[in-house]
Design brief:
With about 375 residues, this protein is an alpha+beta fold. Helices cover about 15% and strands about 25% of the residues. It is built from five helices and 20 strands. The strands form three sheets. Strands 1, 2, 3, 4, 5, 6, 7, 8, 9 and 10 form a ten-stranded antiparallel β-sheet that branches. A hairpin with a 7-residue loop joins strand 15 and strand 16. Helix 1 runs parallel beside helix 4. It is elongated.
Length: about 375
């Protein structure tokens, strides 16, 4: 067995791929964006991983279009059942999301992000994803080459990072060890996913092709997410939306576009969507809210709202980054550089023990079980 550090996949669960922010400069060649469905959860995981690895948090820039796309490869996992182990050497790992974990014989629930140092031979299982649909897993620096400026997997064309395919049992991903001894950092940052607020959208390119009752239904109806939803798009079920004409000449698309096929049931395009399409678009979900669609389970219901001024969409995205800086990055900077053994911090119920965390002066203001004003 190789002595080089590596992450060994024991079980990929339902679905897992390597992603970063995605490809933003290849659409003219028909290449989809790919990348993490939730750029905020991605950055929350990176904040913990950077802290554990001694990397400056200044490298954590805002998501595009506010900042350049990040190319740090992490693993996006759907629905639970993902299991892995460390080989060769210890390295920091991070799990972000609302999940139930098992680390060897220790079971715990994470509401946000957890990072620690994984020793060779230790096994981690993401047993279940609670609220939301995805979790983000990272390990040191995954040694993944870039393809067209990104390490993200593009599944339809089968290129990018890990052989252009989902992760499979037995995959051994090389890990570049940190330049300094990794910190045993435990960084619990509550992460809100649920929101009763409607998802905001701008009028789409073919908004005028839809009758008044269809435009009204888009924002008044309760839409249900169907099991056919995937990384290409969130397929919705609700009132029938009719456009005249029902099809158009193919034109460029971007994630967030709401296409309406002739059957009248809308599809909100996500990261793996095609770059061209010929269905009318009733709306465009704004970038500040699109991440919420990635966490919706089949059968969940959502509402939408009109946002008529594009400038407001830009301001909403900028405001989300400022809140992320205030709540996540500022608190990550205040975390201590070393901790006791991970198992010693877990309470009897499998939840991180806040009294112990405070006693150890571990998080210094990071722990906040009432962080509700991010959404």
């Amino acid at each position: 067995m190789s002595t080089a550090a590596a992450l060994r996949i024991l079980d990929p669960g339902r679905f897992a791929t390597i992603q970063d922010d995605g490809r933003f400069h290849a659409r003219q060649w028909g290449v989809p964006r790919a990348g993490m469905l939730d750029p905020w959860l991605y950055r929350l995981a990176l904040a913990a991983l950077f802290h554990a690895s001694g990397r400056p948090l200044a490298a954590l820039t805002p998501p595009p279009p506010l900042g350049p796309p990040l190319t740090f490869p992490l693993i996006e996992h759907h629905f639970g059942g993902f299991a892995f182990t460390a080989e060769g050497a210890p390295f920091p790992v991070v799990v972000a999301g609302n999940v139930r974990l098992r680390i060897e014989d220790t079971q715990l629930t994470v509401h946000g992000v957890l990072s620690w140092v994984l020793a060779p031979g230790e096994t981690v299982i993401v047993e279940r994803i609670g609220e939301g649909r995805i979790a983000v897993v990272g390990a040191g620096t995954l040694a993944i080459p870039e393809c067209l400026g990104s390490t993200s997997t593009e599944l339809r064309a089968r290129f990018g990072d890990w052989q252009g395919r989902p992760l499979a049992a037995g995959d051994r991903i090389p890990v570049t060890p940190p330049t300094q001894p990794p910190r045993a950092a435990f960084l619990p940052l509550p992460w809100p996913l649920a929101s009763t607020e409607p998802i905001r959208s701008l009028p789409g390119a073919q908004w005028s092709a839809f009758a008044d009752d269809a435009r009204a239904a888009w924002v008044s109806a309760l839409w249900q997410v169907t099991p056919a939803s995937d990384r290409m798009g969130a397929r919705l079920e609700g009132p029938m939306l009719v456009a005249t004409p029902p099809e158009i000449r193919s034109e460029p698309l971007w994630p967030g576009a709401v296409q309406v096929p002739p059957a009248g049931q809308p599809i909100v395009l996500l990261n793996d969507a095609q770059t061209m399409g010929g269905y009318p678009k009733i709306a465009q979900v704004i970038e500040a809210d699109r991440w919420r669609l990635a966490h919706l389970q089949p059968g969940e219901e959502i509402r939408f709202a009109w946002l008529t001024d594009p400038d407001n969409a830009w301001h909403a995205f900028s405001a989300r980054w400022r809140r992320f800086q205030q709540h996540a990055l500022a608190r990550a900077r205040s975390a201590a550089s070393a901790t006791p053994d991970l198992a010693a911090l877990i309470g009897a119920g499998g939840e991180p023990d806040p009294q112990r965390l405070w006693h150890e002066n571990l998080v210094s203001g990071v722990w906040d079980a009432t962080w509700e004003d991010f959404v």
